[in-house]
Amino acid sequence: MQGVGFRYSTFQVALELGVTGTVENNIDGSVSIEAEADEKTLYIFLNRVKSSPSPFGKVTKLDYTFSDDLQDYRKFTVIG
User: Fold this and answer.
1) Is residue 39 one of the residues assigned to a domain?
2) Where is the active site (predicted)?
3) Count of structural domains, the chain
């Protein structure tokens, strides 16, 4: 999902919810997100991302996994 403002819209949702991590475009046109927050906040974040925070984008597939391997991000960053 490139050229529709998805990363920056995701960034705004992360800031609003206090989520830390990263969002970046992949070569195949997909987007990768690493996010850290408490479980409840992460589920809210996922639901907001699923409904596409960008008015010009549409999420057709969402794969996610939870991990205890935290990166201790201090903020949410758009990469690229």
Assistant:
1) yes
2) 7, 25
3) 1
Length of the chain, in residues: 80
Is residue 1 in a domain? no
Please state, for a pLDDT cut of 90, what percent of the chain lies above it.
52
Q: Provide the CATH number for the domain around residue 73.
A: 3.30.70.100
As a whole number, the mean pLDDT across the chain is 88
The model's pTM: 0.85
Range of the domain at 47: 6-79
47 given a catalytic annotation: no
Show the tokens assigned to 14. Answer: 């992360």
Catalytic residue among 25, 26, 47, 74: 25
Q: Which residues contact 51 (CB under 8 A, 6 or more apart)?
A: 59
